[in-house]
Design a protein that fits this description.
166 residues; mainly alpha; elongated
Length: 166
């Protein structure tokens, strides 16, 4: 594998990360889905991956490979985060984020309750969002599969091309 194939891997990684973010934003804007706090957190690995991929595009061969390895780890971490979200949706465990549970408003005045309300409504993290009619696979589950496949394919490319010089 040479520098050109590493550039292609970098470009494809940027495009895959951008596509994942694009699907999330399209579901939010066009389908009217409201993201929960875990959904918003799941977008960060893709943002970081896109940035790492852009840096890999303009870096030397060795640096590009290191950045792609970091990118694969970041996306794998995103798959783990999506797995946690799927578990929360399934009721296997509570959400690790305090924002996912309802506010504790007992004993407060109406003004204090209104002050604690978020500016934009959020949905609970244990309420799955579905975008494909008739298919009971949540956005978090689709993200988990995509992120896992993305990281495995990139790691396989890096493993297969190890030891090759530019």
């Amino acid at each position: 594998m040479d520098s050109a194939s590493t550039r292609w891997a970098s470009l494809l990684s940027v495009l895959a990360a951008a596509a994942a973010l694009g699907v999330a934003f399209a579901a939010e804007r066009m389908e009217g889905l409201v993201p929960c706090p875990l959904c918003l957190l799941e977008r960060w690995p893709y943002r970081l991956a896109a940035l790492l991929g852009i840096f890999a595009l303009v870096s030397s061969y060795r640096t590009s490979r290191l950045l792609l390895a970091a990118l694969a780890l970041v996306i794998f971490a995103g798959a783990v985060l999506a797995f946690v979200h799927v578990g929360v949706e399934a009721g296997a465990w509570p959400s690790p984020l305090p924002e996912c549970s309802g506010p504790h408003l007992s004993g407060l005045s109406v003004a204090e309750r209104l002050a604690q309300m978020p500016a934009f409504p959020s949905k609970p993290c244990d309420a799955p969002s579905y975008v494909i009619p008739g298919l009971k696979i949540s956005m978090a589950a689709m993200n988990m599969v995509f992120a896992l496949a993305f990281s495995v394919v990139l790691a396989a490319y890096l493993w297969r091309s190890r030891g090759k010089k530019a």
